[in-house]
From TrEMBL:
Ranges of residues in domain HTH lysR-type: 14-71
InterPro entries named in the record: LysR_HTH_N, LysR_subst-bd, WH-like_DNA-bd_sf, WH_DNA-bd_sf
Lineage of origin: Bacteria, Pseudomonadati, Pseudomonadota, Alphaproteobacteria, Hyphomicrobiales
Entry GO terms, CC: protein-DNA complex
Function: NodD regulates the expression of the nodABCFE genes which encode other nodulation proteins. NodD is also a negative regulator of its own expression. Binds flavonoids as inducers.
Superkingdom of origin: Bacteria
Family listed: Belongs to the LysR transcriptional regulatory family.
Protein name: LysR family transcriptional regulator
The keyword rRNA-binding appears for this protein: no
Keywords (A to Z) from UniProt: DNA-binding, Transcription, Transcription regulation
Organism encoding this protein: Bradyrhizobium rifense
């Protein structure tokens, strides 16, 4: 480019493709090799680089019999071009992974313990498969989590069924045995199992969080009374109630997923009726209109882990 023309820059915009081609030319120091890498003709690459120089009003490359090399102005341009292309490629990769649900945030509502059981295993597997997804857990009662679903505060909720208030999507998952957490020195701790009738005269700790309301319904159903026993209600999380059991404040009904941790002075026993262990079933609930890309792979994982139930994914 002659000195007379090098400062007469064109007003035409620089195309993103020109940046990539200029970077390739600088990497190979040979237009022929760069053109082969780009799968274009050498004449096409040469013409595009000349046009780019005209647009910029600067000579980017020195062309010699030994190949091409960047000028001082060209090196400055290429440094900036690499940053632009690198940021664009990184942004594209992030958007692609997010659109596939491989990154982003997934808000999960729970109301059971994660010390053991299927929910713990499911979350660990999801973390292994999708390490770049930010999983945010929200704890609450069934009604609270269903309300969060309706307001889009959570993407999916794992709660005890049935839930007649929910008319959108759900998937039946697993069931868990009901367990009594007993003080280690309690007479019932010496039994292999505890029967519902044996709880009638006991003091029961009752949480207002998690599945506490479902346990109260079970007590009323199994004992046939609206006031089945002495209920000590507390608005605290599960581990605090289990600590109270350990110091003899009362008995606590929990699900088997909460038995994975050890609490001093606490013994766990299954609660049976005449037919055997009492179980509560869990469902995953979500909104069909939820457009969070991270939700779909998570639901696919649930259906994979429970394939015999996947056909009922739309049940309410």
């Amino acid at each position: 480019m002659s000195p007379a023309t090098r400062h007469r820059a064109s007003t035409a915009p620089v195309e993103f493709r020109d940046l990539r081609w200029a970077i390739a030319a600088s990497q190979h120091r040979s237009l022929r090799q760069a053109a082969e890498t780009l799968n274009i003709k050498q004449s096409t690459l040469s013409r595009r680089l000349r046009n780019l120089e005209c647009k910029l009003g600067s000579t980017l490359f020195e062309r010699t019999s030994g190949g091409t090399r960047p000028t001082i102005e060209g090196q400055e341009f290429l440094d900036a071009a690499r940053r632009v292309v690198g940021e664009a490629d990184a942004m594209t990769a992030r958007l692609k992974t997010r659109s596939r649900g491989e990154s982003g945030r997934l808000t999960i509502g729970i109301h059971t313990s994660l010390s053991a059981g299927n929910l713990r295993a499911t979350l660990l597997e999801h973390r292994h498969r999708f390490p770049d997804v930010d999983r945010q857990l929200v704890d609450g009662s069934r009604d609270h989590l269903i309300a969060d679903l309706a307001s889009s505060a959570v993407d999916v909720a794992f709660v005890v069924e049935p839930n007649p208030k929910w008319s959108d999507r759900s998937l039946l998952l697993w069931s868990e045995r009901v367990v009594a957490a007993l003080p280690a020195n309690h007479p019932l701790a010496g039994r292999d199992v505890v029967h519902w009738g044996e709880l009638r005269r006991e003091s029961l700790l009752m949480s207002q969080r998690g599945p506490g309301p479902e346990f109260l319904k079970l007590l009323i159903s199994k004992l046939g009374s609206s006031d089945p026993c002495l209920l000590l209600r507390h608005d605290v999380v599960l581990d605090r109630l289990l600590s109270l059991v350990g110091v003899g404040w009362g008995i606590l009904l929990i699900l088997e997923s909460a038995t994975g941790a050890v609490y001093p002075g606490v013994t766990f026993r299954e609660v049976h009726d005449a037919e055997g262990p009492t179980r509560l079933s869990f469902r995953a609930y979500w909104r069909q209109a939820n457009c969070n890309p991270s939700l779909s792979p998570f639901l696919d994982l649930l259906r994979e882990r429970y394939p015999d139930l996947s056909g009922d994914a739309g049940a309410g």
